[in-house]
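If you are new to this repository, start here. Below is one unmodified record pulled from the training split, so you can see the exact layout before writing a loader.
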Amino acid sequence: MARKLLIVIFVFTIAALSLLVIRQEQINTVHTMMVLHLQISRQKTSLDALRFAIEEECSAESLGLFRTSRVNENE
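And here is the target side for that same chain:
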């Protein structure tokens, strides 16, 4: 009887450890996903800032395309 009880306890211990390993893998996966999402968010923010800077530099006013029309309006 004691032998069967020890076997049952051993099996349940192995099962519990297996579940803990699976849970830890899930936690690690979610952490990795969170880190990747933060990196993506930072990259999007810096990309938006670059797009804004490019838009500013390439705008018609900064390129001087409307200078002739402004001179004509002032006269």
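Two things worth knowing about this chain: The helical segments are 2-57, 60-63, 67-74. The longest helix spans residues 2-57.
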